[in-house]
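Q: My labmate handed me this sequence with no annotations at all. I'd like to see what the chain might look like in three dimensions before we decide whether it's worth expressing. Could you predict it?
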Amino acid sequence: MNQTVQRFGMGMIAGVVLLTGLSFVSYGAWNSYLELLTHFKLQYALLSLVLAIGLVQIRCRTWILISLFCLALQSVDLLVWYIPTSQNPASHSSTLKVLAVNVNIRNQNYDRVLELVKIESPDVAVFLETNDDWVKHLQVLRNTFPYFYRSTPQNFDILLYSRSPLTSISTNFLAPTDRPHLAATLTLNGQTITLIAIHPPPPLPRLFRDRNQQLETVSRYVQDLNTPMILLGDFNITPWSPYYRQFIHQTGLHNVRQGFGILPTFPAAIRGVEFPAWLVAILGIPIDHCLVRSLQPISVRVGAAIGSDHLPILVELRLLAR
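A: Here is what I predict for the chain of 322 residues:
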């Protein structure tokens, strides 16, 4: 092995080790800047794979083994999302199909959203980051979804459309920002289900504490309820953040992604330029979530692009046996 190739190989193995270290930052990243690094585990693994392939070409057995070991370590937190969980659905239970998407307040592709709803035909549709223009252009949905609620007439609204009656509807503003969360109840097979839609701020350093405080407020709210539950929205957090793991531990909720894969949803576009689905799958991160209690996900997938920087999530749920 000549000196140039050796230096090249040393650089690649150092890159794999560094990426593995970045991947494991997620287990202690309570700091705002470190927490930003936790969201890219998939990208760290893909880059490590590229470097490992390069090391195979160099044919240094030691470097290859080190890179494979690092890849195995990184893969644990990714592959776990493809392992299905065993749950017992209630016999003869009907299903509930839910659509949720951050439409992006600057997005004006209203017809694409309407077409998405027409094609997917959900029972419940939740739209985040809306305003008066979105309410106006989605008005036609009221013909299909007679039950409608708007969180509050301002920017960053949450819109909720349902085919079945909604009760106990409420909007709460989560201090210290003016972003609301919307809660309502509906019934499935005679069982009351609580549906909550949230949209905390992004984890930028200046908003980091606000996001975490809102997640903590929602956590306390969820723990006080004992009904089957659907909690969904743009959480602005990935499953690899310690704050996400803390939220799941406190609430006991189940991420419907489990068994269906990572399913990245953001970014699907930048400055109006949309990415192809395969690129989102490689570069994207999963920050749009649907968490449930006493419900089993039958199918979970991302929907077609609608001009937003987020992809829709589509979930079909069934009540679990009591």
